[in-house]
Design goal:
The chain has about 325 residues and is α+β, with helices and mostly antiparallel strands. Helices cover about 50% and strands about 10% of the residues. Strand 3 and strand 4 form a beta hairpin.
Length: about 325
């Protein structure tokens, strides 16, 4: 279950509780969307929601009482293993690990648009055109992120959404290439100075984060090619040793939404780094070794690796950076 799916599940539960009279809340007070995020320090579960705190005033009840009304109803939903109430009324939600691998199917079916949503549908954003190289690149990507979440976003008053094209050549890109320059500008948070060390940006080694992300994607493609030579195709199924990678892939839609809302492409860049690092760790057990015969476990691991590669390619595309199949 992705964060977006979990958000929709919580909204359905809230509406059901209101319809059944368990919560006395006016219809217009029921939210169209509910924010779910990683638990705060001290909180448990995979995700947390503060929806009970937002409904408390309208329901005329303490937030913890509202949370208790919703707790079991959410826990009864498919894909949910446990729901606990913490603090003033936060709902801490633990997903059912048994069905967590289904996110792989979601990714492979959606391909590059995995993680796109409509949480910002109906909202419009217009940005001033800027000539400063970093500002131009960041603004372009912010527009793409907003569009990926259903918003109408553009630069200037052209009336047309910004096309997905690379930014103009810059002084840094002339030295290290367009992709490396874009990564340097986008990886740094807005309040941080980007790293522009030419030697490091060109280095084809693990210390170069962009190299790791692109290398991880190329490894996912190599695994697919090598698997075909073995007559092996990916199949979605449980991957007990892939929980860390599955968790990162499940978080991808939430990362895109957060990056769009906060106009922070660096959040996406850091997430891609985390996915790449975990995929590079995971890759060694994907295919059979030596005389080992292909098994269902290998097929499941292959599908997970292919899904991770899809997320990396989609994320790099949003950043305007190429994802080479061979590196």
């Amino acid at each position: 279950m992705t964060p977006a799916e979990l958000s929709r599940t919580v909204v359905r539960v809230v509406r059901s509780a209101v319809d059944e009279g368990a919560l006395s809340v006016a219809g217009d007070a029921v939210p169209d969307a509910v924010k779910v995020e990683r638990p705060r320090p001290g909180g448990g579960g995979d995700y947390a929601s503060g929806v009970a705190l937002k409904l408390a005033a309208a329901a005329g009840l303490p937030p913890r009482r509202v949370a208790e009304v919703l707790r079991q109803r959410i826990a009864d939903q498919p894909g949910i293993a446990l729901v606990e109430v913490s603090g003033p009324g936060f709902l801490n939600i633990t997903l059912d690990r048994g069905g967590r691998h289904e996110v792989v199917q979601d990714i492979l079916e959606a391909a590059i648009p995995y993680g796109y949503g409509d949480s910002l549908r109906g909202q419009s954003f217009e940005f001033a055109d800027v000539s400063e190289e970093r500002g131009r690149v960041v603004t372009e990507v912010v527009v793409r992120l907003l569009q990926s979440q259903g918003a109408v976003a553009r630069i200037g008053r052209t009336g047309e959404p910004l096309p997905l094209v690379a930014s103009p050549e810059s002084r840094l890109s002339a030295l290290v290439g367009v992709d490396a320059a874009r990564w340097a500008f986008l990886r740094a948070a807005r309040h941080d100075r980007p790293r522009t060390d030419v030697e490091e940006l060109l280095a084809q080694r693990e210390s170069n984060a962009l190299f790791r992300v692109r290398y991880a994607y190329s490894r996912s493609r190599a695994l697919t090619r090598n698997a075909l030579e073995l007559g092996l195709e990916g199949a979605v199924g449980p991957v007990p040793d892939g929980e860390a990678l599955l968790g990162l892939l499940s978080e991808h839609p939430g990362v895109l939404e957060s990056a769009a809302r906060h106009r922070a492409p660096d959040r996406l860049a850091r997430h891609l780094e985390a996915v790449a690092d975990e995929l590079l760790r995971f890759q060694h057990g994907v295919l059979p070794l030596g005389d080992e015969k292909p098994s269902a476990a290998h097929r499941n691991r292959l599908a997970l690796a292919e899904a991770a590669g899809t997320v990396l390619a989609g994320g790099l595309s949003l950043l305007g950076i190429d994802a080479p199949e061979f590196l």
